[in-house]
Amino acid sequence: MNNTEKLKKIWNSPRLFIESFMKIPDKNQNIVQFKLNPMQRDYIENMDTYNIILKARQGGMSVANCGLALYYAITTPNTDCLMLSHTDESTRKIFNKLKTMYGLLPDVLKPKLKRNNRQELAFENGSTISCHTMGKKDVGRGSTLKFIHISEFAFVGEQAERQLLSLEQALASNGHLTIETTANGLNFFHNLYQKAKNKENAYKCFFYNYIDTACMFQDEYIKYKRIFKNINGRDLKKEDLTDEEKQLMKDYKGMTLDIITWRRLKIANSSGDQFNQEFPITDDVAFVSSGAGVFYNTRVAENIRYLKKDNYLKLNNLVKDLPIELRKFYGKSFFIYKNFKSNTKYFIGVDSGEGIGKDYSTVVVFDEDGEEVAMFKNNKIKPFEYAEIVNYIGHYFNKGILVVERASAGHTIIEKLRYEYKYMNMLKYKTYDARGKKKTKVGFETSSKSKGLIINNFREMFETGNIKLNSKETLEEMKVFEVKENGSMGAMQGYHDDLVMATAMALEGLKQGTYYIW
């Protein structure tokens, strides 16, 4: 490969261009060649049109995006790039990094400046790089942008959703938009990230934990190791580790005693929740609820962390064949986590949606030992079709007892199950008419009082370790289930609680222990 071919290869590669021609100040303010760390390299080599990044703090993501903005501005004349952050101070810091990196470029590559003010670098080749604070006004409207970088998006505030939509419209057809941030509770960013993670929107999802950025903290690890030794008279040893720390050492390649020492002292200086938000080890522990959450968030996150990916049984591992009516949903809307047993009682919670793409119709199945064995979740299926699905699930699990919420489409489900499918093992409740005469009705009548009772029962059984949850979707809903200002309970705005309610009803059936043999 001759020099011309080498230059062409570098020119067409953001990674090679940055590492070949750009310099940055290191943490000691020494000017060094910009060698991308593993996180930066992975992001740049795998970025898509729309990118969303949840990360641990201070890993060097903003400087990598400054490098990308300069790359596009230099290699593609007449290109506009936009860099945004959540505060004026943060925006100013990013712009200063950008100007420093521009100033350190080789003269032969450095485009001449046409304009250099507090918010913009404009080059004589027609390209511009602008830096603004997101939230103050609509930025980017009317523009066609090659590259958009939004730093600390989770901290932008209420206007985040509206402004993001405007920015998406301004992106060029061959452009790139990157959102990167540490977590900040359960907000619009959390919702957007979860959808990206589940492949429910256009964004490509990236997560980088504090092991991925460990190379940026070597001096800090040494400092905290010294502090620990000053306090304890010796370094941390393997025999000093807690069970949680031992598990971290086992689960994460690159985890060392020095990092554990740093982590332990960081948590001691703040709290476990705060550390997990700033320096998450998994994306599940990063999101800490700032509201009045019903379930203990740390325990929920720990449960999610230990769930294996795709932990449901494969079709060929089921000991009992699924009817074709359930088979078509398996692995998409219907999951079985533990095989059916012929001598076991099953308790089945049923929450019904309208089948119009909003609230979900959900079924959660528990065995008599308190383990979740199956879950169904679908928001497209119509109530009359859903009754058939519930009937098949009930029969599959030993004609288990159905606890069906009567609200919404629940009346339709109950009527079809009872009178069309002749399903007899259904929980009943007592009520009294105006004359004081007792009546028994099928289903579960949800009121503010009864809802509080079954949710508190669910919470107690979960937090005392009397049940085992296998559905990650249920655990995710538990994270956003809160007590409202008026005292009611439900999902935060923009989220769902259908699996939480189905689980609570299944556990109410388990608690009552009623079982009709037919």
Descriptive notes:
With 518 residues, this protein is an alpha/beta fold. It has three domains: 3-208, 3-Layer(aba) Sandwich (Rossmann fold), CATH 3.40.50; 221-283, no CATH class; 315-512, Nucleotidyltransferase, domain 5 (2-Layer Sandwich), CATH 3.30.420. The protein has 19 helices and 19 strands. The protein has an eight-stranded mixed sheet, with helices on both faces. A five-stranded mixed sheet has the order 11-14-13-12-15. Strands 1-2 form a two-stranded antiparallel sheet. A hairpin with a 3-residue loop joins β5 and β6 (120-123). The longest helix is centred in the N-terminal third of the chain and has 16 residues, at 88-103. The chain is elongated, with a radius of gyration of 28 Å. The model has no long low-confidence stretch (mean pLDDT 91). Keywords: Viral release from host cell. Pfam families: Terminase_6C, Terminase_6N. Residues 348-508 form the Terminase large subunit gp17-like C-terminal domain. InterPro entries: P-loop_NTPase, Terminase_6C.
| Fraction of residues in H or I helices | 25-40%
Number of strands: 19
Outline: elongated
Give the number of helices. Answer: 19
- The whole-angstrom Rg is 28 Å
The name of the CATH superfamily of the largest domain reads: P-loop containing nucleotide triphosphate hydrolases
CATH class division of the largest domain? Alpha Beta
Q: Which architecture name of the largest domain does CATH use?
A: 3-Layer(aba) Sandwich
Strand order of the largest sheet: 5-6-7-4-8-9-3-10
DSSP strand content: 15-25%
From the 3D structure, determine the CATH topology of the largest domain. Rossmann fold
Q: Give the end-to-end Cα distance, rounded to a whole number of Å.
A: 80 Å
Could you say which structural class the secondary elements and strand pairing correspond to? alpha/beta
Query: Low-confidence parts, pLDDT < 50 over ≥5 residues?
Result: none
Indicate the mean pLDDT. Answer: 91
Largest sheet: 8 strands, mixed
Number of domains: 3
Pfam families: Terminase_6C, Terminase_6N
Keywords: Viral release from host cell
Organism: Clostridium novyi A str. 4552
Protein name: Terminase large subunit gp17-like C-terminal domain-containing protein
